[in-house]
Amino acid sequence: MNFELTDDQQMIQSAAREFAQNEIAPVAAQFDESGEFPVKTIQQAGELGFMGIEIPEAYGGSGLDSLSFTLVIEEISAACAAHGTIVSVNNTLYGVPLLTYGTEEQKTTFLTPVASGECNGAYALTEPQSGSDAAAMRSRALLSDDGSHYVINAKKSWITSGPVARYIILFAKTDPEATGSRGISAFIIDTNAKGFHRGKTEPKLGIRASATCEIELTDYECPVEQRLGAEGEGFRIAMNVLDSGRIGIAAQALGIAQAAYDAALIYSRERHAFGAPIGSFQTIQNKIADMKVRIDAARLLVYRAAWHKMESKRTGAKYTLNGSIAKLFASETAMFVANEALQIHGGMGYSKELPLERYFRDAKITEIYEGTSEIQRMVIGRTETGLR
């Protein structure tokens, strides 16, 4: 078993770290405070090839592997988790379904500009009344009498990059009579088309620079050519895409945890109390040890999930279980480490003068979106027992 990164992976990791620390870290607090979308730095990410890491060069991407994607998200999220969210969604929730299920024409038209960083993509599954129970959606897409287009009426919530996205992968029922997850189809939505409306931008606790909003489609006419995959295949597409997205969120959580740990380690050496560095006290050393062990374990699980994703392209094997394990452990590690790091900093950790309170706020969302910790435990438990 080889734990060494390849030369190409080390190179992309170094490039991502340099970009994150030199360009993102200096402005992270500013964008967290304002809640504005970081247009300039996201454009720079696109120029560096980070908005379509696993997308082939033929479609505007960098043509790299899944572990390279994970390394980039980890490094960017260590500087600013909001940037990590934007880059991850563009790559996984938007890029993966188009690359996997899109026609050649769809890839050329709708994937290339997003993967190259020319514009942003988004993913619309959640609705106001259906979060974890995604199959209970009320959005409808009815085929026109002449069969040329679908008329879509839908309301979606918590759409990451919704306020700025040019294209969105949206899920709606094409067979209203079908029960459960059946009868759902996927569509590529052009937000410039008539009938598309953006709602309020959410005032979030964390990842504030990652713009999130409600969207509404009213009698939106979507050409049949913009249906993604076969009719009725939407729920399967949505769940398969989340497998990939969860690895991205696990990498984001890992980056947050590492940043919080690094800050705590430095502070424990520099802060003196009772005539000695606080890092020399057993209580602080125990905290450092617990944080270090969890981060190392999380990193191995996240990288393993990325490896299984790479293998799936060769073997066709699913990597759902490994993605859920990585997402569950890494997100809970991020929350644990952020909390311990803040505690080590004492009152200064509670102040906005330091980034600890931002790490703490940003860490929480990793336990919630793209499948809560409760959902991950359900996926893992069902997979292990074979029972539903």
TrEMBL record:
Pfam families: Acyl-CoA_dh_1, Acyl-CoA_dh_M, Acyl-CoA_dh_N
SUPFAM superfamilies for this protein: Acyl-CoA dehydrogenase C-terminal domain-like, Acyl-CoA dehydrogenase NM domain-like
Superkingdom, natural source: Bacteria
Enzyme Commission number, as recorded: 1.3.8.10, 3.13.1.4
Keyword Flavoprotein listed: yes
Location of the Acyl-CoA dehydrogenase/oxidase C-terminal domain: 232-382
Matches recorded under Gene3D superfamilies: Acyl-CoA dehydrogenase/oxidase, N-terminal domain, Butyryl-CoA Dehydrogenase, subunit A, domain 2, Butyryl-CoA Dehydrogenase, subunit A, domain 3
GO MF annotations in UniProt: acyl-CoA dehydrogenase activity; flavin adenine dinucleotide binding
Listed InterPro entries: Acyl-CoA_DH_CS, Acyl-CoA_Oxase/DH_mid-dom, Acyl-CoA_Oxase/DH_mid-dom_sf, AcylCo_DH-like_C, AcylCo_DH/oxidase_C, AcylCoA_DH/ox_N, AcylCoA_DH/ox_N_sf, AcylCoA_DH/oxidase_NM_dom_sf
Cofactor: FAD
Annotated ranges, domain Acyl-CoA oxidase/dehydrogenase middle: 122-219
Record has Phosphoprotein as a keyword: no
Keywords annotated in UniProt: FAD, Flavoprotein, Oxidoreductase
Domain Acyl-CoA dehydrogenase/oxidase N-terminal: 6-118
Reaction catalyzed: 3-sulfinopropanoyl-CoA + H2O = propanoyl-CoA + sulfite + H(+)
Family: Belongs to the acyl-CoA dehydrogenase family.
Protein name, per record: 3-sulfinopropanoyl-CoA desulfinase
Organism: Woeseia oceani
